[in-house]
Write a structure and sequence with these properties.
243 residues, alpha/beta, Rossmann fold, 10 strands, globular
Length: 243
């Protein structure tokens, strides 16, 4: 296995974005792909490493960019300021995710009929909103994500992408009432969904640098390991049943 990586520039409504692509270049065959949505800081090295992990599993991994080329927050205030416009305007969020999805589908090694989306924290909201948009793709994985639906969501339409949510039971940024509301929404919209709750687990449980109990972001090695297992199993399921 030889993992090739490269950056790809693309535009959304005049904004220059830069994604990170990773794949095994020993084969020229088209393969399934995973679009990865970053947390609130932006497309940093940690999320690019996730794309490499997807490539090591045999997929094309693509870390998308929500903010713009080279834009990465360095503290909570900057991160919040970068994320907030998309929280306030979920149409903007969905449009940017749709652009990333189409950019990935156009890559030469990607089977455009087999694409899933994986998001962490703010990125979890991004991939859920991609599914909420009604666009056709294989599946969505939301990891310790923000779960609230857009206030103007059309909840009578069907969600076609399969949904996996991996969540900490003690996550203060998306508490139990948000989980219940999401379950109700996904059921009403006839989605194929599953939610895994990890006990004694807070927000950002996959981030080894997370250690702020007061803010509610704490790394949990067991939950991190279990989530990796669940992600691999879900991707295997959706790609092997969408041939």
């Amino acid at each position: 296995m030889s993992i090739h990586t490269q950056t790809i520039e693309y535009y959304d409504n005049g904004t220059l974005l830069e994604g990170f692509l990773a794949y095994d270049d020993k084969s020229a065959e088209k393969r399934p792909a995973v679009l990865i949505a970053h947390p609130w800081a932006g497309r940093d090295q940690a999320i690019c490493n996730r794309a490499v992990q997807m490539a090591e599993l045999g997929y094309v991994g693509f870390a998308g960019d929500m903010y713009g080329k080279g834009i990465i927050g360095t503290n909570t205030d900057e991160n919040s300021a970068l994320m907030q416009p998309f929280i306030d305007n979920r149409g903007l969020l969905q449009a940017r995710m749709l652009t990333a999805l189409e950019t990935l589908r156009q890559q030469p090694l990607v089977n455009p009929e087999q694409v899933a989306a994986l998001g962490y924290c703010f990125g979890g909201m991004c991939v859920l909103d991609l599914a909420r948009s009604g666009v056709q793709f294989s599946g969505t994985i939301c990891v310790h994500g923000l779960l609230q639906a857009p206030p103007d969501i059309q909840q009578d339409s069907t969600i076609t992408a399969r949904i996996l949510v991996l969540h900490g039971y003690q996550d203060p940024l998306a508490p139990s009432e948000d989980v219940t509301a999401l379950q109700t929404e996904l059921t009403k919209r006839k989605a194929d969904w599953q939610i895994h709750l990890y006990g004694n687990t807070m927000h950002a449980f996959t981030n080894p640098l997370a250690n702020d109990i007061a803010f509610g972001t704490v790394y949990n090695a067991s939950a991190d390991k279990r989530s990796c297992y669940n992600i691999r199993g879900f991707l295997d399921e959706v790609f092997n049943t969408n041939q």
